[in-house]
Amino acid sequence: MDPFNRTPNRTSFWFVGAWFGSALTSIVFASLFLVYISTEKQVLPPTQNFKLYAALPEKASEVSGEIIIADGRSKMVEDFFERYHSILANYSQNFIAVADQYKLDWRLLPSIAMQESNGAKKVIGSSFNPFGYGIYGGLVIKFASWEEAIERVGRALREDYLDKGLTTPSQIMTKYTPPSLEKGGSWAIGVSSFMEGLR
């Protein structure tokens, strides 16, 4: 006989087993709860993601350029312009904000800027007009900044083109740059090609 009674009995085995089972169950439930929390995220529609930037004002003179955040499209526009070493890469968020405000295809303005001025590399002195907008012969429309140019031309595309049924590069070309019609639609071909590069 063991004088110290060191032989475990059935009660002690049951107690240890119950404690171990309870601890294991708690760990499993805690792990499942953490997995549930980490995957339970609200998914917003694509058009609502990161819409935290300030809406541009109605008047170009009130444009402050203080845009807070844009979504991933601004990074795509930035990378697009950087490939061509264009200063407009610094204004990618402006392009997206204006496109959203005036409900434009977000690729349209950057593509026109590339087609017209190689991304602001060929601009009439101090005009801040990379879009070739309102430039006919000796007439040159000038803007006070790149931000103002983006906003004003974006608004003009909405009001004077898209709202009048001119929605594709080929249709926009008939009014924006009619001489291109005599060149086989080269303007629309170029704009469309740049837009494809922004997909």
Structure characterization notes:
The protein is an all-alpha fold. Helix content is 49%, strand content 0%. The protein has seven helices and no strands. α4 crosses α7 and α6 (169-176) crosses α7. The radius of gyration is 31 Å and the shape is globular. The model is unreliable at 39-70 (pLDDT under 50).
Describe the secondary structure blueprint for this structure.
Blueprint: H1 10-39, H2 72-83, H3 92-101, H4 108-117, H5 146-161, H6 169-176, H7 186-197
Briefly, what is this?
This protein is mainly α. Helix content is 49%, strand content 0%.
**Helix-strand category:** mainly alpha
The coarse overall form would be: globular
Distance between the termini: 85 Å
Q: How would you spell out the order of helices and strands?
A: HHHHHHH
Determine the fraction of residues in helical runs and give it as a percent range. Answer: 40-55%
Stretches where pLDDT is under 50 for at least 5 consecutive residues are 39-70
What value does the Rg take, in angstroms? 31 Å
Strand segment count: 0
The biggest sheet amounts to: none
With helices defined by DSSP (H or I, 4 residues minimum), what is the helix count? 7
Strand content: under 5%
Mean pLDDT: 78
